[in-house]
Amino acid sequence: MKTYPIILLALVSLFMHACIQDDFVDDEVDPILRINESIDSLEINTSYQYEATYLNNVGSPESVDIVWSSSDSEIIEMTEDGLATAKAEGSATITASFDDGNRALEATNLVHVGDNTTIVEQASIMGFIETTTFYDLEGDFIYEETETGTRLSFADNYVASAGLPGLYIYLSNNRNSIANALEIGGVETFSGAHSYEIPDVGLMDYQFIVYFCKPFNVKVGDGEF
Q1: Average pLDDT, the chain
Q2: Do residues 48 and 38 touch, judged by C-beta distance below 8 A?
Q3: pTM summary value
Q4: What is the pLDDT of residues 108-120, one digit of tens each?
Q5: How many CB atoms within 10 Å of residue 197?
Q6: Please, are residues 19 and 13 in contact by the beta-carbon 8 Å criterion?
Q7: Going from the N-terminus, what domains does the chain have, and what CATH number goes with each?
Q8: What is d(CA 47, CA 187) in angstroms, rounded to the nearest whole number?
């Protein structure tokens, strides 16, 4: 009697059970309101157009009516659509707010009015990826802007389980889901330094790196920007 098919079936069942047992995650996250690009200073008698992004309870961008305000309208005057105009020297806090009926969200930017306009620029973010299962997954990373998009680079201490088939990496605004996430691709490097070039993506477009066992839609690990 040949036992190979029985052994193979048992191994497949064991793998599926090991992977699926972690597939009970809460896809909901806390909604976020953020100002897309902040400024440190605004030249007097000039204007700056603010924009903000609302991410709903599953991490997806959603168009909402954002209320803009200034802590001192004599220094910086705000319009309903987020246009800030510097009226006099001094400092004022610009606030974007939204209330969905369940909770109130705010994002703020302290601005100094003076001789120049200075945009707050962030060119790179450092972080750490770690496992959320019993599979190996960890390592330091740096996420940085490039001329064509962004680059995600992992350090020498990166390690992932090579025995886990179908491991994929994504950028997401929901650390528990790959719905509406950007698929970077299948993992081919399981140890050591390596990087991914990600075209047409901004540094602040996503909040998390997430690793999923794609065949079973099971999260394996994540990292936060």
Answers
A1: 88
A2: no
A3: 0.72
A4: 999 999 999 998 8
A5: 12
A6: no
A7: 4-26+122-224 (2.60.40.200), 32-119 (2.60.40.1080)
A8: 46
